[in-house]
Design a protein that fits this description.
- There is one protein chain.
- By secondary structure, this protein is of the alpha+beta class.
- Helix content is about 35%, strand content about 25%.
- The chain is built from 19 helices and 23 strands.
- The strands form seven sheets. The chain has a six-stranded mixed beta sheet with strand order 7-3-2-10-18-19, with no helix packed on it. A five-stranded antiparallel beta sheet has the order 12-11-23-22-21, sandwiched between helices.
- Helix 13 (about 330-340) crosses helix 15.
- The N and C termini lie far apart (about 85 Å).
Length: about 550
């Protein structure tokens, strides 16, 4: 028995003659890129009772009930149950209450730190930060996806006891310290996030949409600087009692939901055309090419219309710059049909459509893309101006950044560094450049064209005097049960600045705004507001 079962019997013996109190590890903090603490802990405690060690059960129940605001009779019945070795009386008790309880010197009553998660800024970065369970386990957001790093490893204190669990006077105590959790440093910039939160809240108040959301990305390396989704909730007041609402409001729709991007997608069509022209493809159109006049194109038996009636000669004799400024669908149909499906799909792949971006966050969707083997001319025509294709917002802003930053496609990221409790960096997430999309020359030409859209075209409401802003508006109809949902639109704007050396990229998506639908009216002003906020926060000087 000693040889064969010795180790197991020793474990059983130790379990019988000792009782343990947990030493809860301090959960790691979450900070922005500059160290601003976005998620912290408050010192709280769990109160335990060992019924067999309680001398005066009625008095103990009365004292615990009074100080901890519990039901005395229910507590008394539990204390009478000698078959239970330990009871958790209450969790997350504040320090002053525990001090008051300790003054009663109640036998069999113990305390252990359990910590309470605190979110200093409340309704701020809600879908990214996420929340924990009452036991401190990550349930959503970074709290869930970085739970292994954040949670740490609990320790314990072992007390020597007799057979029924009573602590032996003068017995030994063994302390096994906890290993505290690691601090997760995000790519998010607190100042820019504050600007984004304010802008999206304003959009909700102005247009009462289904949702208002935005992403701000560092176009030079794919780091997410801000991400705001409204409606949301205060992370200190989690609506746990309404599970359906909680799950809905916790979803990071900028990564999980797809939509038809509409005219913002014309940036990708234009990028492909410019690159092909610079490579000598004779089917690509030059910047001086003049598109045929008219507001329609006949493609494979279907009619593609421009959003504008072209009355009084509007949109006639357009170049690519004019087509972008006016957001004229037929011109982009001409570009796509000239390039052909093989070439268009080559660029769709380079820009990451139909597949995940690889952002370091859970729940990302692939988007929807008609397989190249099944695409028709009609499909190709509509893809050129952002229909018959569905993207996630993270896909679109990553692709646009790769189109204007010199042609470098970076995997988007939200985690920057991991630190231990002493501040030492134990992990660094460096930018990952996945592929080239277009040449630096083509990228520069594209950025210049998109700057023209903000200066003279549909993106005027994102214009900032003295600063070079580029971008494109989008207005897409929504579908329900396979049919167009009348009066329901997704209004958007994607832009960047400075146009001559893109650094900050921003996508604003307003779902089902009331009273207005055009991205030029609904979304572009909020992108301009966010850019102005960045300029103010970073004290950026005018470029022009």
């Amino acid at each position: 028995m000693q040889v064969v079962w010795g180790v197991d019997l020793q474990k059983h013996a130790v379990d019988q003659w000792t009782r343990e109190l947990p030493v809860v590890a301090v959960r790691g903090k979450i900070t922005d890129r500059k160290g601003t603490v976005l998620v912290d802990n408050q010192d709280t405690y769990s109160v335990f009772v060992r019924p067999n060690a309680v001398k005066e059960k009625r008095e103990t129940a009365r004292a615990l009930a009074k100080i901890l605001d519990l039901n005395e009779e229910q507590l008394y019945e539990k204390l009478k149950n000698s078959k239970v070795s330990e009871l958790t009386v209450k969790k997350h008790v504040d320090k002053n209450t525990v001090l008051a309880l300790s003054q009663n010197e109640l036998a069999g009553v113990y305390y252990a730190r359990d910590n309470t998660r605190v979110y200093p800024y409340g309704e701020f970065l809600t879908q990214i930060l996420g929340f924990t369970s009452t036991d401190g386990v990550g349930q959503s957001g970074i709290e869930l996806y970085q739970n292994e790093n954040l949670k740490g490893v609990n320790g314990e204190i072992l007390y020597t006891t007799d057979l029924v669990g009573k602590e032996i006077p003068g017995g030994n105590a063994y302390y096994y310290p906890a290993q505290n959790g690691l601090t997760v440093e995000l790519t998010v910039d607190y100042e820019i996030q504050t600007v984004a939160e304010r802008a999206m809240q304003e959009a909700m108040l102005t247009y009462s949409p289904k949702s208002a959301a935005c992403i701000v990305m560092d176009a030079t390396n794919g780091e997410i600087l801000a991400l705001s989704i409204k409606p949301s909730y205060n992370l200190n007041e989690i609506p746990r009692e309404d599970v359906s609402s909680l799950l809905s409001l916790s979803r990071n729709i900028l990564l999980t939901d797809v939509y038809e991007p509409g005219s913002t997608f014309k940036i990708i069509t234009t990028a492909a055309n410019i690159e092909e022209y610079n490579q000598g493809n004779k089917r690509a159109l030059s910047s001086s090419h003049v598109f045929p006049s008219g507001r329609t194109r006949q493609v494979a038996g279907t009619t593609v219309k421009c959003w504008n009636t072209h009355a009084n000669g509007r949109h006639s004799s357009q170049t690519i710059q004019d087509a972008l400024n006016n957001s004229c669908n037929p011109c982009f149909v001409d570009i796509a049909l000239n390039l052909g499906a093989e070439t268009v799909y080559e660029y769709l792949d380079k820009f990451g459509f139909g597949k995940k971006t690889g952002v370091d966050f859970g729940g990302e969707a692939h988007g929807l893309l008609v397989p190249k083997s099944a695409v028709t001319l009609s499909d190709l025509a509509r893809i050129s101006f952002g229909q018959t294709i569905a993207v996630t917002p993270i896909q679109l802003i990553t692709a646009v950044s790769a189109a204007v930053n010199g042609g470098y496609y970076y995997q988007p990221s939200i985690i920057r560094k991991i630190r231990n409790e002493n501040g030492k960096v134990v992990q660094v997430n460096y930018p990952v450049m996945k592929n080239r999309t277009i040449s630096e020359q083509s990228s520069s030409e594209l950025a210049h064209l998109l700057e023209g859209v903000v200066q003279n075209g549909s993106g005027k409401k994102a214009y900032i005097d003295g600063y070079r802003v580029g971008g494109k508006t989008g207005t897409a109809q929504k579908y329900e049960n396979g049919k167009i949902a009348q009066g329901k639109y997704v209004s958007s704007f994607v832009g960047f600045f400075p146009a001559n050396a893109p650094k900050y990229a921003c996508l604003v998506v307003i779902d089902e705004p009331k009273g207005q639908s055009y991205g030029s009216v609904v979304a572009a002003p909020y992108a301009g507001e966010i850019f102005q906020g960045i300029i103010n926060a970073k004290k950026l000087q005018p470029y022009a």
